[in-house]
């Protein structure tokens, strides 16, 4: 028998499965296919369900019901500022606030009288707020009393190189002005100016400026209320567009990617009612879009024609003056008067001026004084910065007025009397101080003190010693118990020798070699170097306090240490002020850039090296914020303590004795010294900042407007 047959039992279940294996395979295949089909159906249903949920969630998010993801905020709120005299602007601001509230936006209505732009305006750069300004024009085109400080600050900031053209970049704003076209010469002047100044500081205009007209006959919409409603409608529509994140309103009729109707993007002063004219032009020093060049060129051509016509008229006037040999011309021409007035000068007569120093403003608000306060104890809020001569004999590369002042080597203009100059200088200074009454942060006691001038810095601009009656002017100052700080550019040695005593006499030592002095000061005199040396020798003969004023210009005069040391021995000054140059912005008159401005630590390094070469001197004081240090002669270090401050009352007593004696009762610098406080000394932790005041740090630290 075959053994294999014994092994296989055909009656067993395994044998049965083997014999029917085809059906088993078929069953398995069918089951797997069925499972696969089932899985496909399940997954397709899940996918459809997910799509439905996603769509429903998207609809809900679109309607704002369930913010599963944080929505980007394009407008966080609206701030409405108003300056009102009779209450109309305030009413419009309130009306606008009610309308903005309907858009579910936070809104704040702010009286400009209670707002400090110096502290808070720069915050709008990053706040995502939209700022609306509703401002009225008052008598003679002036702002209402409540907006005077804001407008003055804005005007000065827009023309101050320390702020620059991007100070408010990122801020969004719109302006509505209130005025009366019956006064055509200054119709809506305040609104136009606020619009212009904000734009000059880099802010972005989001809506066309509106102009309300109280003259019903000339109002575009029949009344000032209707003018405001028309502007408000446009502003609210623009606000809704901004809320959606759209930068420009667009109706689809675009040209080269820009809406033809988007007037809010124009970098000009524009309104919905006016045509672009001579007043509404772009600052030619700013960056211009290519598509705006046509308007700019038209303006330039028109301005050129007007200038030529003016020159022709001036030529006729000059010819007339030439025929009148006995009459001298005025130093301040109409064009110069306009330029200096725009820079904030209060001009006096035909050749003098006064201006409010930023340190005066700072100390009025308890935010610290200038370096003269730290070094010599002046009260900055009581200091008047003026000059009896706007003319100068140099064209220094760091001139902070970009040479808008006249130049000359001798006095060849009409001359005003010193009594008139001093009287009007004090009056103008007091009027500028009065504008700070009620300004947020101004200390009442310092405001009252500021109205009484105690110090006069004859260093505003120009060369004060050129004024033929400078000694009479100084005598008048001292009779009024006003101390005198006179600065000269070391080109008039005879005048320095003939000068009567002053509280402190400065000589600008901007370079130590003939070549570098010519390069930096660009003097008009051909014998400038000999005049410079003779001026230093004349300084050495003075008995009152004398100061060398060194302005460091990196890469131009910081490597001349030995030559500086030799000049110190020539003039033997009581003090040496060393200050880093202040960059005054771009100018065709100077090639100076920020690269030429030394850091404070670099100034300290220079001073240390210089002191090593002049053994009779030591570093006495520091004013970090002005990037300035004081080197003092050791004779002012009494019993190991510095006495660099001034006893001003004692100086006035000595001057009175000097005048009463006809000049025979002389006195020296050490006769009116005062002890220097510890906080003013070099190495003190305060670094020259008076602890009685509060140090103010700007919130927008990227915008550096330091300088002196």
A few lines on this structure:
With 708 residues, this protein is of the alpha/beta class. 38% of the residues lie in helices and 14% in strands.
Describe this structure in words.
This protein has 708 residues and is α/β, with parallel strands linked by helices. It is 38% helix and 14% strand. The strands form 5 sheets. The chain has a 10-stranded mixed beta sheet with strand order 9-10-11-12-13-14-15-16-18-17, sandwiched between helices. Strands 1, 2, 3, 4, 5 and 6 form a 6-stranded parallel beta sheet that branches. Helix 19 links the parallel strand 15 (545-552) and strand 16 (575-580). Helix 4 (88-101) runs parallel beside helix 8, helix 6 crosses helix 7 and helix 13 (418-434) crosses helix 15. It is extended, with a radius of gyration of 37 Å. 36% of the residues are buried. Mean pLDDT is 80; it is low at 1-7, 64-68, 249-296, 316-326 and 701-708.
